[in-house]
Amino acid sequence: MTAWLVALAALVLAAIWQAFNHVAVRSAISDSLAADHPATSRSDVDDTVNLIMIGNGAAALVILAFAVVGIIRVRDRISSGRTMLTVVGLLAVAAGIQFWLVAEPARDVVGPVVSVLPLVTAVGALIATALLYAPAVGTWLKAAPPRR
Question: Where are the transmembrane segments (predicted)?
């Protein structure tokens, strides 16, 4: 569970860092996207960046909420928690890589934290998910007392 806590802490820190620097991050991403697509109007670029930023925030909240529920279920020795954390782990890896790729233009503006934390989230979620399938975890889950 420690690996999950590290991954979720990195996710929360990345979201907070982006929230406090959202103007600089949004501006850097907009400028980069506008430079890559000069024929696109600035309002379309800004709308796209707004959608990306809102989508990233929503994805972070969903991942965080479902991961907490999955962690509680595994702690209570309910094996479906492992399945839930596997799905959340795959989503966290995809979201971490996506956020890292999208936020790359903002690295020069707000520092390397915006590049490192999404990768820590992705790697932490991958390791945490893999550890859920260790033989000892399966044995521990199977040895749970019967539910009423």
Answer: 50-72, 84-103, 115-141
Please write the tens of the pLDDT for every residue from 15-48: 888 888 888 888 989 998 899 999 999 999 999 9
Q: Are 85 and 78 in contact (CB under 8 A)?
A: no
Give the pLDDT confidence score for residue 50 in this predicted structure.
92
Q: CA 63 to CA 25: how far, in whole Å?
A: 22
* 99 within 8 A of 11, measured Cβ to Cβ: no
Q: DSSP state, 147?
A: P
CA 138 to chain centre: 26
Q: What are phi and psi of 112, to 5 degrees?
A: -70, -10
Proportion of the chain above pLDDT 70, given as a percent = 100
Q: Where are the domains of the chain?
A: 2-137
